[in-house]
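Hey L., structure's done. Input below.
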Amino acid sequence: MFKPEKFKGKKACVLGFGRSGLQAAALLARHGFEVLISEDHSSSRIPLADLPSGIELETGGHSGRVFACGFIVKSPGIFPKSAVLKEARKRKIPVFSELEVALAFVAKGVCILAVSGTNGKTTTTTLLGEILKEYCRQLAPARRVFVAGNIGTPVSVVADELKAKDFLVIEVSSYQLEDSTFLRPKVACLLNITPDHLDHHGGMKNYVKAKARLFKNQRANDFVVLNGGDAYCVQLAPGLKGELQAFSAQPNHALKTDVFFDGDEIIFSQGDRLRPPKLQGIHNVENAMAAALCALAVRVPAAVIQHVFNRFEPMEHRIEPFAYHHGVVYVNDSKATNLDSTIIALKSFERTPHIWLILGGRDKGASYEVLLPYLKDYCKGVLSIGECMDKIERELHDSFPIMRCGTLDKAVDYALAHAQKGDIVLLSPACASFDQFADFEQRGRVFKKLVHERIKSQRIGKEIKQTPQTN
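Output:
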């Protein structure tokens, strides 16, 4: 456990110059620590003069200066078996996660609600944050709500602002959890566990182990919200210490649930009935169930939850319809960075072969063969892009038609040329974006821009053809 007073006067090294690394360094500097940020890659994203006082930066590799520091803060995404971490541990230099360091500066009495899972984290975290904000607006104006973590704002940014009785809603990734030796949320929610980040964690066993750290330090007066229909979640249930609240929108589930879906309403064991948000797919009903159970655990009235459900809108990059042209719907699901996310996206549409699926990017280690039954039920064809095109073709080509496009713009061109009225063009890549894009957000926005530009071009071309020619 990181205790700031124990390391007072010692220099900190933050590994990684990403958003969370920089903010963790800034937090430590604000509290009087000297900090070295050490980045393996070359970086010129910000001038050195813009670094906060007390922070030094080295890029292009980790030097021996790292090992002269009193402790190390590991940014999410740093490979756990990297040479620099092995050497640090060999020298018995303490290594802490960015999340754990940030939480060490959070005031006592803050109510922490943490959401994790392979899929649905951001939607559930956002929905829960909106529910708590509405609760504070209506019934507890002295309390505030902060939403942070993997959702985009590092906890380090808000750590100093939090006061007793405020709510802190954190989206927590497996990268953040794997190094967190002390995390104790009042409410811990695990949505699901399916194969993802296996290249980073070294297999499914370690991935599940990282997710389980969400509950490690909870006590009997804390709460657990768990997916009763997810096999890995169910396996974790017997060892949990907090009060368990299980959810599942599926008719068959292994764990006794405290809420179910009758097709129209979410019905809770204590009698509350809620209409889910107008979001596409049964997975979003489960996200709503989870958010509601988390809110009820901290005594938010059902009427407040329903008020937020009624106005909640679909989020960008998550099964987001954004364009209609000649009877074809274009859907941005760039956030689908694993196979299960893509399966969820496909299942949210009518079960008939009418989808052109844009698939590919940077491979994450799982087999694309699991997609085959869904491709046959829902898709007309696969438009492959990115680094893993060869693997996609090897694993799917003999069983399903694949058009090798290479880049997103060529996939869009192919889709516009071949999609017919009633079809859907769906970007749901099942892969990371880092081969061709900075992140999934950029990939999604580029996709939308390309589609809008091509549609506009087609319309202008049609208008030119229809304009009478005069001599």
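The chain has a mean pLDDT of 90. The chain has 16 helices and 20 strands.

-- N.
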